[in-house]
Amino acid sequence: MRSLFRFLLRNYFVMMFLALEAISLALIVSLNDYQRVTFLNSSNNLVGSVYERFSNLDDYFSLSRTNARLASENASLRKQLHMRIANQENYPINRPDTVEAPAYIFTSAKVISNSVNKQFNYITINKGSRHGIKQDMGIINSEGVVGVITNVSQNYSTGLSLLNKRLLIPAKITTNNYFGSLVWDGEHYNTADLKEIPFHVIVNVGDTVVTSGYSNIFPDGIMIGKIKKFDAISGTNFYDIKVELSTNFKTLKYVEVVQNTKRTELIKLESNNITE
Amino acid sequence: MIKDFGKYVIMFIVLVLIQVLILNNIQLSGLINPYIYILFILLLPFTIPGYFLLGISFLLGISIDIFSNTPGIHSGATVLIGFLRPGIAQLISSREIIEKGNTPNLSQLGFASFLKYVIIAVLIHHLFLFFAETFSFGDFLETLVRWILSSIFSIVIILASQFILFKN
Measured between beta carbons, which residues in chain B are less than 8 angstroms from residue A23? Predict the structure, then answer.
């Protein structure tokens, strides 16, 4: 036993190196996963506040661009509202139901940290559990889908960006309603792959791809992007479709967090199918 | 000694902030991500005890990890550099310089030795980093390109920063 201690003491530099490397490796293997320990990421309050301060400074340089985007979003919302009012006048019976709670609740938030250059990108926003944010809520903005919340602290949350190879989003092609799943290709920040679309489906370049609403996270029909090109590779059953994403992840500033108020009910109902 | 300690604490904080707030946002074609924070490990005095060198390496790596949501990747790479640093230092400079208790910086080592020192350390660090990040040899060529290009950028930035600091 004593000689063992003496050995360890004499080679403490190597031993300590091996121990620290083992800790790092364990962290890589266990924590770089879909669900991660909260204290070791940027939803942590200290890290979040550093990012927020820097982001506040950075905001001044993009004020005009943000303004332009908000103005165009306002215009499109006003147009939608107008169409809806006109519709209601024609069909007075078709009133929205105001008794029941809305199916989706939107919370606006600011992106305080974001990356596009890694294989697994994450985004951090300045709203947390105090503002009603919970795990597995969707993140969108006026351009389209942004990501999904994975970790929440009191004031901040982090989520998988769509530019993260671990995130799979159920998506469909609007022209024919065939659905598949969308996953990032890990190459460029504005393209992703749409998988599981079979060969017999007629696909065109420029077709719009939206969320299918099958995931309980995103509402139906949130914009994802347009088909950029597609290939039919022999030996497979599915197209190799490249989608040009409508969200510009490099200029991401303001987002909305989507809460599906019926999600727990849906999950409970669907889990019955599995057990029976 | 106390004065030096304060200097290193400030350097630690400044390098982490530069890395996470500025350099992590440099995204040239998705292939070039310079990482210069290991400059801190490279500039520690030669006489620093081994346990302190490894401990501070781990602390630096894990700080970067927490900011960039990559637990373990940067800490692993930085601890490796901390472990190899005495070896690299012996490789590039003479025994007298090391034993005099100097700091391995540009003025002490001279340009040629300092360049070799930085190149070896950055290449090893980035190699570990990029392969740990993809955690596979699947995209071997792409990772190789990222490694080479990012290393060149990191080396240039580190050298430029040293030149600017020593001019003043």
Answer: 58, 72, 75
pLDDT in tens, A235-269: 788 888 999 999 989 888 889 999 888 888 888 88
Domains and CATH numbers, chain B: 2-167 (1.10.1760)
pTM over 0.90? The answer is no
Q: How far is B141 from chain A (nearest CA, A)?
A: 13
Contact between residue A259 and residue A108 where contact means Cβ atoms under 8 Å apart: no
Q: What distance in Å separates the CA atoms of residue B120 and residue B38, rounded to the nearest whole number?
A: 12
Nearby residues of A208 by Cβ (< 8 Å), 6 or more positions away: A173, A174, A175, A223, A225, A226
Nearest to A117 among B20, B30, B72 (CB): B30
- Per-residue model confidence as pLDDT tens digits over A51-101: 888 777 777 777 878 887 787 788 778 777 777 766 666 665 555 566 666
We find that the CATH architecture of domain A42-260 is Beta Barrel (2.40)
Element (H, E) at A209: strand A208-211
Record the tokens describing residue A164, joined without a space. Answer: 């993260």
Predicted ipTM of the assembly = 0.82
